[in-house]
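Appendix B, example 12.
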Amino acid sequence: MADYTWPSIYFAYSYFVLMVLGALVFLIRTVKDGYWGARGEDVKYQVFDSHEEREEGRTS
């Protein structure tokens, strides 16, 4: 009888490591792009301002 326990454990742990590394990559990218600083929400207000300008017919 074959024991399939170890391949499933290796797959589970490798999948877990892959997901953690992916999350860390995106976390590092957000830090590098400045989303965690004091001016991190400036992009949100810029998007909202440009959306309001488009609704009023103004373009920049």
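Helices lie at 5-33, 42-56. The chain has two helices and no strands.
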